[in-house]
């Protein structure tokens, strides 16, 4: 078969790039070594039969869980066979591209024992956990409770006679629910339960609980376990999210993790020295989710960009770019409407990658500080990770579905790969802190910072220093502040953009602080809409800041792996587009206090359009640079070679219905209907 | 088992209503008779085994198609047994709640033959089609072409020797694709193909094409058919969307539908008298989609409202409403953030219902006019239906997913019912005219109207009369126009709201018209972002207008089935909330030319919050009034009795995994891993 027009189109678009794609890939993933390691790890997964994805579309939850178990155990074996570290393991998971029953074993079971267990407890469980001789999950959520730990209804009651704990599900709604790994795979769980001694409730604590026999995998008496069934959009289908109920189930005293809180053999309870020492793992999880948000969105943008490059519809001479064959219709990606929807999502992907890296770095710095007894950064890092998790995962969820919709009719096929991707990204909007509830963290933090800015500006933390220009002796000038843009070109300044984001965040923060202060205590809930607004405003400011910093650092003369001129130039364009498109999307916030004038609004819209148009030649190269292999994309329409129609056709051939000459149900249903009123001659 | 707290909570919330729910239901569905007929038709479906939904979550596409065939044929039988008309049939489909292979038989095959066939052709096919002795689908879209009919690659070539048509798929991308009913069920199709006589292309025409033998259901030689495989999010799984290729496949001359265009036995082609006579069916389809958009959103709002009423989390004394049991946590629906997300969606549902009814009425009036030779309304109705389809289905798609997210963790379970609903609503954003492309219809129309307003204002059509205040001698005053609101209370005026929507739509229309005029011809694509803005702005204006009119008519002294005082009052609150929340969502449009001042923006936000809070007592009653039975909602969390946790538990028990003592894959996968490093004693 001759090379299809699709393949030619993608190759031609690729050749238009003004920058060096491998350079850009190194920038995105941090270094050349990272890129090579990532490819190597991907190759380990891609060659394994159990990780092939061809039949995923047809697996229902029941069958998918068995596959998930097989994938889980093979993943553990590969990790051990290759002696891979946690980072490599996380790349394996990127290649596997599905949630698996084993995820929480390394993602929560081992980390919780590590951070909250004593040295003896480490010795007891960690070696066998690391060798996968036991498999664990993390059981917090119940049927009736998610966020509110203090009202959990699973209890661990101290039994004075034997010095044991008795676990009980004290009500119907006490059933542990949603627990990944619990339904089928795990032998153990760390369980959050209310600690009760002599009728006194000491709040939620963590216990290591054996669930299933290591000999025959049957649940122990007193433990009732099941799977909670299918999830929305066919997501998490290979994950055995489960439920568990405990009925007077006894475990030894030392199964309570006692690094911080302790209970002695005679039932004396000792409080932890620091209340917030366990925040670290929440910050880590949220930082990972921010990185993932960029990864998911960049995959969707890759698929959409490639398909829209090869899809042609209508022949519009004013927007066509290729002049060689005027018979051909216009490539869809050349329509300005499409570019104005798609290219900002490419820019967002780049911004999210930068944010993910900075957030991870910030987390590691904080952990290092904390290991030396310095907890100064904890409050800011926790607030930042909450705000960014909420904003970035929201952006990613919306963006992935937008990429699918942009693909028009064929976008509704499973074979785009975007259906699976959406089902993976969208739960991130509601778990690990619901994206709305979570914004209260940043809001509470920023209100404190407003107070600090007013009373002791020197002590304002780095990322809320924008408050200083709006408080104290600066307050009056701030009220009159306006944007300095005089002509369209002026928008192309990182400083101008930052000034706008700072102004808007400062205004919203101060309005919130004043409103909360000005009203009776205890009506915090009334301000939650404003909490959401300031949290996202702050997150947007941070994204613009960090993306610019990342480019500045990568293009600095002293940079280790310096990004060369043209690559830096296109990165700055992306940064400008990301910043200005974000302003445009939330324009009211910038206009309603007079910071932007009507003329500046029009000018902004023009500049966004101009930036979008200026990226057209680089679109395909920009998504190529993410370096997502076909195995990961698993998309008929977004593959590297661009052969979209051929691949869509081939994918359809794998439908089992097409192996039959006449469909199931003909004799049973169709024929009787057709013959109900006798024969017809046509 | 005692009555659960969940059940008590929903009953208590229900009892707070300030209006009469049956009155409201009659208003929503048009009359008491409609409500009773709807319930009767629902009962016909609910009692049939083939329409039960309990195992839907586990059916993959392959198995689902067989179910879809069984449901299709039973649907046809029930229609015949009960002699149901088209309207009743559409209510059956609402109860069935899934896309079925038979849908296009009555939805397109019969209507296309009816509207485009001659009397002889009616006689040939319609009686057997109506008795389901033949089953048809509608084959337009191809692998390579959706919207652009003139570039279809399926040809019907006139064979002079025999007077037949020879159908050919002239390229790989000519394969018909996405055709509902084609993959498994249908015996016939109406096929869009380019009509070729003596090498001359006369453009796309419609042909009735036999596909499968009426004796054994095998495809005829020259016809190749298959199923295109699974769709995104598990949607349309029971639908056999198929592909077809034709290889020199001959059909008789009179299989071309010849009511408008004709070809004689000697190959002489006659053009149709009117180019746009076939627009009617597009308008109908889009009008139905607008009605459906309201139906889908109202179902999601029902589920979410009920669940959030029974879900309790944290004990927040400032927002709790029930004082009887201070031990209980706060009902989630009482948090202002939740109310401010949820109640505007309830209001939107009501607005969409009103729009659906008005649009259908407008369509029927137009068809009556056209049957008397009057085509005056066609252009306006076509533009309106395009704008409203785009806006309303977008709103509904976003709203359904927002309802799911509001439900937090449990919202990701399949058993919410919202996963299925989303998969049903979301393709409406890209089919029957992509929601972005479609906005060009209204834009083209409104540009013409701007010209008319400037030259001959008396001839401006009814729904764009707002242009007159912005053109001609009014133009200067328009530029200085500002909103009249002086205090929060002033926002509660339909006239004030309409004035704002009119001002904004007029401004955007005139800006677009001037820009298009001011630049070189042929660069229409450059303005498509602005087309999108004006189209949605116009649609929002129409929704506010029609919703208010519907309430005014229903509460008028002369109304047949008058809505009583309290019902009318709460309807006006919904109308205000819908209008003001829409302004708030698109605030920049109203601010950036100075129509709203900073103070008015703040005032608007306060009034939206106040309206939301004032609806709290009526929330459950307002969704009850939609009258969606449990069978249709198919939701563990949103059922009429509110017993959410119990139903979620019961649903999980139906998971086949839970029928096994030890999971599949234990011996094969888990045990070898656990034993890989020998025994462990814990």
In total, how many beta strands of chain A?
Answer: 11
Number of domains of chain A: 2
- CATH architecture name of the largest domain in chain A: Up-down Bundle
Q: What is the highest CATH level, the class of the largest domain in chain A?
A: Mainly Alpha
Low-confidence stretches of chain A: none
If you consult CATH, what is the topology of the largest domain in chain A? Butyryl-CoA Dehydrogenase, subunit A, domain 3
Overall form of chain A: globular
In round numbers, the mean pLDDT of chain A is 95
Helix content of chain A: 40-55%
Largest sheet of chain A: 6 strands, mixed
Q: How large is the count of helical segments of chain A?
A: 22
Report on the structure:
2 copies of one chain form a homodimer. Chain A has 2 domains: 111-273, Butyryl-CoA Dehydrogenase, subunit A, domain 2, CATH 2.40.110; 280-322 and 329-624, Butyryl-CoA Dehydrogenase, subunit A, domain 3 (Up-down Bundle), CATH 1.20.140.10. The first copy, chain A, is 51% helix and 9% strand. Chain A has 22 helices and 11 strands. In chain A, the strands form 3 sheets. In chain A, strands 1, 2, 3, 5, 6 and 9 form a 6-stranded mixed beta sheet that branches. In chain A, helix 10 crosses helix 15. At the A-B interface, helix 4, helix 7, helix 9, helix 10 and helix 11 of A face helix 4, helix 7, helix 9, helix 10 and helix 11 of B.
């Amino acid at each position: 078969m001759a090379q299809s027009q699709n393949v030619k189109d993608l190759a031609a678009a690729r050749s238009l790039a003004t920058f060096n794609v491998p350079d850009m890939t190194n920038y995105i993933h941090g270094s050349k070594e990272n890129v090579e390691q990532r490819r190597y790890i991907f190759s380990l997964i891609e060659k394994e039969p159990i990780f092939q994805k061809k039949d995923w579309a047809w697996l229902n939850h029941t069958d998918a869980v068995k596959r998930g178990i097989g994938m889980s155990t093979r993943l553990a074996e590969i990790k051990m066979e290759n002696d891979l570290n946690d980072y490599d393991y996380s790349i394996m998971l990127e290649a596997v591209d599905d949630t698996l029953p084993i995820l929480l074993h390394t993602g929560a079971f081992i980390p919780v024992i590590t951070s909250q267990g004593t040295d003896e407890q480490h010795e007891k469980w960690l070696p066998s956990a690391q060798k996968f001789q036991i498999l664990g999950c993390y059981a917090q959520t119940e049927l009736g409770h998610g966020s509110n730990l203090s009202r959990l209804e699973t209890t661990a009651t101290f039994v004075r006679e034997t010095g044991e704990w008795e676990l009980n599900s004290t009500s119907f709604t006490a059933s542990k629910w949603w627990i990944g790994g619990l339904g089928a795979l795990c032998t153990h769980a760390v369980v959050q339960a209310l600690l009760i001694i002599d009728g006194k409730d000491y709040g939620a604590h963590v216990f290591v609980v054996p669930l299933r026999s290591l000999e025959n995998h049957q649940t122990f008496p007193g433990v009732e376990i099941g799977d909670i069934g299918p999830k929305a959009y066919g997501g998490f289908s290979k994950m055995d999210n489960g439920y568990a109920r405990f009925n007077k189930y006894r475990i030894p005293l030392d199964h309570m993790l006692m690094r911080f809180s302790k209970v002695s053999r005679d039932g004396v309870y000792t409080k932890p020295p620091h209340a917030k020492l366990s925040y670290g793992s929440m910050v880590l999880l949220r930082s990972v989710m921010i990185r993932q948000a960029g990864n998911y969105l960049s995959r969707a943008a890759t698929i959409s960009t490639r398909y829209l490059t090869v899809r042609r519809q209508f022949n519009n001479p004013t927007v066509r770019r290729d002049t060689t064959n005027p018979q051909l219709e216009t490539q869809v990606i050349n329509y300005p409407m499409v570019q104005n929807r798609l290219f900002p999502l490419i820019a967002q992907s780049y911004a999210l990658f930068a944010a993910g890296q900075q957030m991870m770095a910030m987390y590691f710095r904080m952990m290092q500080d904390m290991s030396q007894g310095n907890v100064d950064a904890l409050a800011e890092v926790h607030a930042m990770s909450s705000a960014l998790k909420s904003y970035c995962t929201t952006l990613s969820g919306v963006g992935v579905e937008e990429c699918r919709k942009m693909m028009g009719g064929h976008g509704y096929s499973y074979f785009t790969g975007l259906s699976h991707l959406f089902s993976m990204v969208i739960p991130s909007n509601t778990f690990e802190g619901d994206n709305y509830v979570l914004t209260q963290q940043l809001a509470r933090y920023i209100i404190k910072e407003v107070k600090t800015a007013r009373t002791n500006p020197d002590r304002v933390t780095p990322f809320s220093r924008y408050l200083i220009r709006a408080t104290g002796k600066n307050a009056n000038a701030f009220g009159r502040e306006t944007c300095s843009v005089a002509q369209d070109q002026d928008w192309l300044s990182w400083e101008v953009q930052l000034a706008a984001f700072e102004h808007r965040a400062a205004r919203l923060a101060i309005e919130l602080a004043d409103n909360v202060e000005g009203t009776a205590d205890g009506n915090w809930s009334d301000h939650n809409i404003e909490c959401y607004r300031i949290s996202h405003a702050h997150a947007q400011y941070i994204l613009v800041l960090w993306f610019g910093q990342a480019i500045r650092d990568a293009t600095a003369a002293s940079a280790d792996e310096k990004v060369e001129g043209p690559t830096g130039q296109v990165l700055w364009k992306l940064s400008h587009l990301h910043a200005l498109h974000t302003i445009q999307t939330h324009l009211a916030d910038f206009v309603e206090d007079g910071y932007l004038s009507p003329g500046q609004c029009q000018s902004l819209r023009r500049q966004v359009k101009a930036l979008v148009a200026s990226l057209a030649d680089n679109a395909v190269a920009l998504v190529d640079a993410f370096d997502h292999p076909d195995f990961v994309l698993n998309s008929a329409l977004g593959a590297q070679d661009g052969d979209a129609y051929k691949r869509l056709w081939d994918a359809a051939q794998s439908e089992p219905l097409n192996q039959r000459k006449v469909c199931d149900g003909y004799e049973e249903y169709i024929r009787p209907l057709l013959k109900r009123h006798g024969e017809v001659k046509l």
